[in-house]
Amino acid sequence: MARAGAHAVLISNETMVPSLQSGDVVWAVPARSYTSEGLYVFDRFGTPDVSRAEALGPDVIHVAKDAPGYLPHLMTRADFEAVVIGRVVAPSPLDARTGG
Predict the structure, then answer these.
(1) First to last CA, the chain
(2) Who's near 25: CB < 8 A, 6+ residues apart?
(3) Which residues contact 39 (CB under 8 A, 6 or more apart)?
(4) What is the CATH number of the domain that holds 76?
(5) Exposed (0-12), middle (13-18) or buried (19+): which is 92, by Cβ within 10 Å?
(6) Strands 24-30 and 73-76
(7) What's the pLDDT score for residue 5?
(8) Residues 6+ apart with CB under 8 A from 45
(9) pLDDT in tens, the chain (100 residues)
């Protein structure tokens, strides 16, 4: 069950495989800052994009995709807060392709 205030986010690419597939739907709550390790939704040129984030220090956040071939990058908290729009809260994705 999604939390109050959560909204559905459609995964539209293969960058989070094997964790998430294109066509999966996850639930995210609005977020404007890093709170803990996990999946976050970023505004990438007007399109929601999910990445995994982990703090490496008080002002450094490691942001990565799960799929091989995508290089991780480091962000300052200020840069992270400029593009983060949500935090994924669903324990498992819903599949928009099959409805389950």
Answers:
(1) 13
(2) 8, 9, 10, 11, 93, 94, 95, 96
(3) 16, 19, 26, 50, 51, 52, 53, 87, 88
(4) 2.10.109.10
(5) exposed
(6) unpaired
(7) 83
(8) none
(9) 455 688 899 999 999 999 999 989 999 999 999 999 999 999 999 999 999 999 999 999 999 999 999 999 999 999 999 999 999 997 555 555 555 5
**Is residue 99 in a domain?**
no
Q: Give CA–CA dist 41/10, Å, rounded.
A: 11
**Residue span of the structural domain in which 60 resides:** 7-94
Measure the CA–CA gap between 85 and 31, rounded to whole angstroms.
5
| Number of domains composing the chain | 1
